[in-house]
Amino acid sequence: MSNDAIVLLKDDHKQVRKVFRDFQSAGEDATERKGRLVEQMIELLTQHTYIENEVMYPRVRALLPELEDDVLESYEEHHVADVLVMELVGMKPDAERFDAKTTVLIENVRHHIDEEEQEWFPKVRDGLGRKVLQEIGAEMTAARKKAPRSPAQPSALKKTIDAVIS
Ligand SMILES: [Fe+2]
Ligand SMILES: [Fe+2]
Predict the structure, then answer these.
(1) 160, 75 contact by CB (below 8 A)
(2) What's the pTM?
(3) Average model confidence (pLDDT) across the chain
(4) Taking a C-beta distance cutoff of 8 angstroms, is the pair 70, 166 a contact?
(5) C-alpha atoms less than 13 angstroms from C-alpha of 47 in its C-beta half-sphere
(6) Cα(29) to centroid of ligand 1, in Å?
(7) Of the residues 2, 12, 137, 161, which has the maximum number of CB atoms within 10 A of its CB?
């Protein structure tokens, strides 16, 4: 399996996109199924956010200061997603705003993922090269093992708060 940081992150994105598509094709009445899909979404997004916030963004920021603005924008986009995720955690799938909130989450995260893949990753690959990306990838694989799976866990909440106030 490749340890290239960008390959690993793209693989996560692919899984996230698949759950988004499943949610959007689930149909109006599939309340229970949509509830489970949102749980899956939240788990994937929480872990993905953790390894990006914990490893990818700080490493890139330190090694490629010219990409700092992109990293700061990413923190903000993740923050918006975190807020929606935390609200969804406390919401029942049959709640009036459940589908709407999930749709806004999907739209936001899709935009963010597209930006990472189309604009940011190419710059990062050019700037860092293969060897450093392998090192960062190995670090992310290690970080994933301690990643929270649900934002209700205090470490995930703390990350959100740290990202906002730091
Ligand atoms: Fe991201
Ligand atoms: Fe990402």
Answers:
(1) no
(2) 0.89
(3) 93
(4) no
(5) 21
(6) 31
(7) 137
CB 136 within 8 A of CB 5: yes
Q: What is the CA(79)–ligand 1 centre distance, in A?
A: 10
Instruction: Give Cβ neighbours of residue 68 (< 8 Å, ≥ 6 apart).
Output: 61
Task: Give me ligand 1 centre to Cα 143, in Å.
Answer: 15
Contact 3, 137 (CB under 8 A): yes
User: Ligand 2 (ion): which residues have CB within 5 A?
Assistant: 116
Matching residue, tokens 């959007």 = 24
DSSP label at 66? G
Q: Which amino acid is at 30?
A: A
Q: What is the pLDDT of residues 16-27, one digit of tens each?
A: 999 999 999 998
Separation between Cα atoms, residue 123 and residue 64, nearest integer Å: 10
The angle formed by the CA atoms of residues 7, 10 and 12, to the nearest 5 degrees, is: 115
Which secondary structure element, helix H or strand E, spans residue 117, and what is its range?
none
Q: Give tens-digit pLDDT for 111-164.
A: 999 999 999 999 999 999 999 999 999 999 999 999 988 886 655 666 666 666
Question: How far does residue 33's CA lie from ligand 2's centre (Å)?
Answer: 25
